[in-house]
């Protein structure tokens, strides 16, 4: 069941489930964009083809917020806003705790302290994978993100991540390069998969100025209905952070 978290005449924001693809690809699986078009056509009784602009994508095993444009005006402006960094996305990721604990003797009290990761990423098209390097390489693109710990259990840590650049598999690749692959992300070194094939990464929040109305838009996705996600976010709430 598709979960629409925001909509108006110009944009629609959907909470993508892990396993869904945003746009059609070589798998031939039905993309989320087609499902949204059908939703708009039925809800608003639109005759003929429905316009829907894909502004950005999320990797197939990732869940969370995806913004679509319902008008060409909104699409043009949203594309420009993404290019200029005016759409702020917050990601949550679950990683193993061991490496983070080694990095900080005061791990238990280090929550909320921001850290920056900088790498040079090289994308391998055939493998559909990116590789991180500490220094510049041929065909590499600089990748920068910030992260902080929100909560933790004995084995896992919930991280909040802000991207300062937008590179292929950036969060997955950079956290793995730090020694903290995302839970379930076999491609980037996680020891085992998640039962449902997802990885424990979600696009949690988006903030931007509406491209037409100029009103501030802030939207959050619900946390996945999964025991570990629920435990870590409940712990986070109890800490009052």
Task: Describe, in plain words, how this protein is organized in 3D.
With 241 residues, the chain is an alpha+beta fold. Helices cover 21% and strands 32% of the residues. The protein has helices spanning 32-43, 72-83, 98-103, 170-177, 227-238; strands spanning 3-7, 11-16, 53-54, 63-69, 88-96, 115-124, 129-133, 141-152, 156-163, 201-209, 216-220. Strands 1, 2, 3, 4, 5, 6, 7, 8, 9, 10 and 11 form an eleven-stranded mixed beta sheet that branches. It is globular and about 55 Å long. Mean pLDDT is 91; it is low at 105-109.
Topology:
Blueprint: E1 3-7, E2 11-16, H1 32-43, E3 53-54, E4 63-69, H2 72-83, E5 88-96, H3 98-103, E6 115-124, E7 129-133, E8 141-152, E9 156-163, H4 170-177, E10 201-209, E11 216-220, H5 227-238
Parallel strand pairs: 4-10
Antiparallel strand pairs: 1-2, 2-4, 3-4, 5-9, 5-10, 6-7, 6-8, 8-9, 10-11
State which percent range the strand residues make up. Answer: 25-35%
State the assembly state of the protein chains: single chain
Helix content: 10-25%
Order of helices and strands: EEHEEHEHEEEEHEEH
Query: Low-confidence segments, ≥5 residues, pLDDT <50?
Result: 105-109
The rounded distance between the terminal residues' Cα atoms is 31 Å
The pLDDT mean sits at: 91
Number of strands: 11
Structural class: alpha+beta
Shape: globular
Largest beta-sheet characterization: 11 strands, mixed
Number of helices: 5
Radius of gyration: 18 Å
Output the keywords.
241 residues; eleven-stranded mixed β-sheet; globular
Would you summarize the structure shown here?
The chain is of the alpha+beta class. The chain is built from five helices and eleven strands; from the N terminus they run E-E-H-E-E-H-E-H-E-E-E-E-H-E-E-H. A hairpin with an 8-residue loop joins strand 3 and strand 4 (about 65-70).
């Amino acid at each position: 069941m598709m979960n629409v978290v925001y909509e108006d005449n110009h944009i629609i924001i959907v909470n993508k489930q892990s396993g869904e693809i945003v746009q059609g690809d070589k798998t031939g699986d039905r993309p989320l964009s087609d499902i949204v078009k059908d939703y708009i056509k039925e809800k608003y009784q639109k005759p003929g083809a429905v316009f829907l602009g894909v502004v950005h994508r999320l990797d197939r095993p990732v869940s969370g917020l995806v913004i679509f444009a319902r008008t060409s005006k909104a699409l043009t402006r949203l594309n420009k806003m993404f290019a200029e960094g005016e759409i702020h996305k917050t990601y949550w990721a679950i990683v193993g705790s061991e490496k983070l604990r080694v990095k900080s003797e005061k791990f238990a009290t280090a929550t909320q302290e921001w850290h920056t990761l900088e790498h040079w990423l090289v994308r391998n098209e055939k493998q559909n994978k990116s590789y991180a390097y500490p220094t510049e390489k041929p065909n590499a693109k600089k990748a920068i993100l910030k992260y902080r710990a929100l909560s933790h259990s004995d084995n896992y840590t919930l991280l909040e991540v802000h991207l300062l650049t937008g590179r292929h598999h950036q969060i997955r690749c950079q956290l793995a390069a730090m020694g903290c692959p995302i839970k379930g992300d076999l491609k980037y070194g996680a020891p085992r998969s998640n039962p449902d094939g997802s990885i424990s990464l979600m696009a949690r929040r988006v903030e931007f100025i509406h491209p037409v109305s100029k009103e501030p838009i802030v939207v959050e996705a619900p946390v996945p209905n999964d025991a570990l996600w629920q435990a870590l976010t409940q712990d986070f709430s109890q800490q009052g952070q």
